[in-house]
């Protein structure tokens, strides 16, 4: 049996502002740093064999202490990054709706197929995440793997594991600093914990 511990990064400065930050970076806010302290205590007794993050500062800041205290090297994976919002990185949806009304209408109409200008569609990000995840699961069949990433990434992972499709992406709420745990038993995924923030 392998176990996936999926952690969304703590609250970043862009999260507080409501800005889209997929591939641009945003440091943790003061609230986020407080969440990290509580997360560290919550995970104290959890067995962890490997730690993966994205290349984003906010994921590495979230899980850095745990990695250091346990002597586990963090492996950074580009494939686990949030969706690339392209030209809309750093903007919020109200700003986009006001200043790019045609593009906003297209976004609503096309849904998961919508590709951000010079960025990705949700389907693009799903395929990227699944490719990365599949490789990791093959490598660690009897290990506990912690993956600290982003809301979209975690939704993609869970949607893939339970249905082999991106279509369940929006069926899960994934809050900042939340912990979701999935056991994979003989290839069969069992969700043990979903979006746990009770420790905060």
What letter string, H or E per element, gives the SSE order? Answer: EHHEHEHHHEHEE
Count of all domains: 1
CATH class identity: Alpha Beta
Largest sheet: 6 strands, mixed
- CA(first)-CA(last) distance: 29 Å
Record the strand order, biggest sheet: 3-2-4-1-5-6
Q: Report the β-strand fraction as a percent range.
A: 15-25%
The counted number of beta strands is 6
Which parts are unreliable, with pLDDT below 50 for 5 consecutive residues or more? none
CATH fold category name = Rossmann fold
What integer value in Å does the Rg equal?
A: 17 Å
CATH superfamily descriptor? Phosphoglycerate mutase-like
Query: What CATH architecture label applies?
Result: 3-Layer(aba) Sandwich
Average pLDDT = 97
Number of helices: 7
Question: Helical residue percent?
Answer: 40-55%
| SS content category | alpha/beta
The backbone outline, from C-alpha atoms, is globular
Task: Provide an overview of this structure.
- The chain has 200 residues and is an alpha/beta fold.
- The chain contains seven helices and six strands; from the N terminus they run βααβαβαααβαββ.
- The protein has a single domain, classed as Rossmann fold.
- Strands 3-2-4-1-5-6 form a six-stranded mixed β-sheet, sandwiched between helices.
- Strand 2, helix 3 and strand 3 form a beta-alpha-beta unit.
- Helix 4 crosses helix 5 and helix 6 crosses helix 7.
- The longest helix has 18 residues.
- 33% of the residues are buried.
- It holds the Pfam family His_Phos_1.
- It is an enzyme of class 3 (hydrolase).
- It comes from Paraclostridium sordellii (Clostridium sordellii).
- Keywords: Hydrolase.
């Amino acid at each position: 049996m392998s176990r996936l511990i999926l952690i969304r990064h703590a609250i970043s400065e862009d999260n507080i502002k409501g800005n889209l930050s997929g591939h641009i970076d945003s440091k943790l806010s003061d609230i986020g740093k407080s969440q990290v302290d509580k997360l560290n205590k919550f995970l104290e007794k959890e067995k962890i064999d490997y730690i993966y993050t994205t290349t984003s500062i906010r994921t590495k800041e979230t899980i850095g202490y745990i990695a250091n205290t346990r002597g586990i090297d963090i492996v950074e994976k580009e494939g686990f990054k949030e969706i690339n919002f392209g030209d809309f990185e750093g903007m919020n949806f109200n700003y986009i709706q006001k200043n790019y009304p045609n593009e906003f209408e297209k976004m609503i109409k096309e849904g998961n197929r919508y590709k951000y200008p010079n960025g990705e569609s949700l389907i693009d990000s799903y395929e990227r995440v699944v490719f990365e995840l599949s490789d990791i699961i093959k490598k660690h069949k009897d290990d506990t793997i912690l993956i600290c990433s982003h809301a979209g990434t975690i939704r993609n992972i869970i949607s893939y594991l339970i249905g082999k499709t991106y279509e369940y992406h929006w069926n899960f709420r994934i809050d900042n600093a939340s912990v979701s745990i999935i056991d994979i038993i003989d290839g069969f995924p069992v969700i043990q914990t979903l979006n746990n923030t009770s420790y905060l």
